[in-house]
Amino acid sequence: MWGLIVAAVTVAVVKSEEEAMKNLTTVSWAHAVNNKTYLEAALASEISMLEADIVLGQINGKEGPPIPVMAHPPATTSDLSLSEFLSSVAQYNNVNSKQKGVKLDFKSIEAFEKSQDQIALYSKPEIHFPLWLNADILAGPVEATTKPVDPVKFLTLGAKHPRSVLSIGWTTNYGGNITEGEYSREQIGAMLRLIHENHINQTVTFPVRAGLASNSQPVVLDLLRETSSLNSSITVWSSEGDAVEVDRLKALILTVGLERTYLDVPHELAAKLHLPPAANVKN
Ligand SMILES: *[C@@H]1O[C@H](CO)[C@@H](O)[C@H](O)[C@H]1NC(C)=O
Ligand SMILES: *[C@@H]1O[C@H](CO)[C@@H](O)[C@H](O)[C@H]1NC(C)=O
Ligand SMILES: *[C@@H]1O[C@H](CO)[C@@H](O)[C@H](O)[C@H]1NC(C)=O
Ligand SMILES: *[C@@H]1O[C@H](CO)[C@@H](O)[C@H](O)[C@H]1NC(C)=O
Ligand SMILES: *[C@@H]1O[C@H](CO)[C@@H](O)[C@H](O)[C@H]1NC(C)=O
């Protein structure tokens, strides 16, 4: 009798894990994991993906040539280097069955170039935790003027880590009094050209800003169709206070599919979406 119960529970757990893999919106996110205290808290939590920013700078109070450290511009100092960040996550994953992944957001090509050796230690095929390399490599809506990270250099170096997921997006200018906009056909086409011309042959995800992506369903679908051989997905993100048409966003997510959409938006927005539960779950 106990054997039966254990077997039933095991089946339920395996089933829900399979379910979760098909529903990428269940993946949870910690942001700006850029210091030791927060990294420890994130590792101790249920969160599955740790997003963190990398700049060239210094460990607090130390001097010497700039190294990759965890910080968001304009900050250039931190108590946490990229090297320590990655080794802490790897150590956690060595002794825990539920693996935590990392999304490394590179704020400049120089930071990415100087991070190559450290990334290489964890992009070996025998290491399995999710490793995402993220940068905004093209200028996007609405007429964004933030300088993108050099796209060809980013893709060329990213391809040297074939087990990593390339998370490649557009700079954006949205929020505040900018409440309308969309990804244009030209912006989507420029991304497709880069992927093609640089012979990208690894998993890709496209971070798209919720309020803009929801107005861009046709071109987002084109983008995913043209990259389906790369197991492409979108990662829908949003800043606190962004204007978002909830119904349109929900339509985008359900059209693209829960199995191809990571959802990294504030809880308040996620709750408004009321994503449908799996139809075949009957208790
Ligand atoms: C550590 O990072 C978290 C998340 O970014 C932030 O809220 C917190 O203020 C940071 N703590 C220090 C001491 O910088
Ligand atoms: C929007 O806000 C920015 C700064 O927050 C301001 O410079 C600009 O004039 C505003 N534009 C409009 C159309 O209100
Ligand atoms: C893509 O990479 C796989 C191995 O990861 C390789 O087998 C395949 O030949 C590559 N395809 C192209 C078009 O380079
Ligand atoms: C896509 O997924 C399939 C099945 O998991 C895998 O065999 C293939 O290598 C993946 N290709 C890329 C480019 O991620
Ligand atoms: C997918 O996950 C979300 C949580 O992000 C949940 O609300 C929804 O019911 C799930 N749907 C399916 C079909 O698994």
From TrEMBL:
User: Sorted alphabetically, which Pfam families does this protein's record hold?
Assistant: Menorin_N
**Which parts of the chain span the membrane according to its record?**
none
Which keywords are on file for this protein?
A: Signal
Signal peptide start and end residues: 1-16
- Tell me the ranges covered by the Menorin-like domain, including all copies: 23-269
Q: Which domain of life is it from?
A: Eukaryota
Q: Which family does it belong to?
A: Belongs to the menorin family.
Query: Which named protein is this?
Result: Protein FAM151A isoform X1
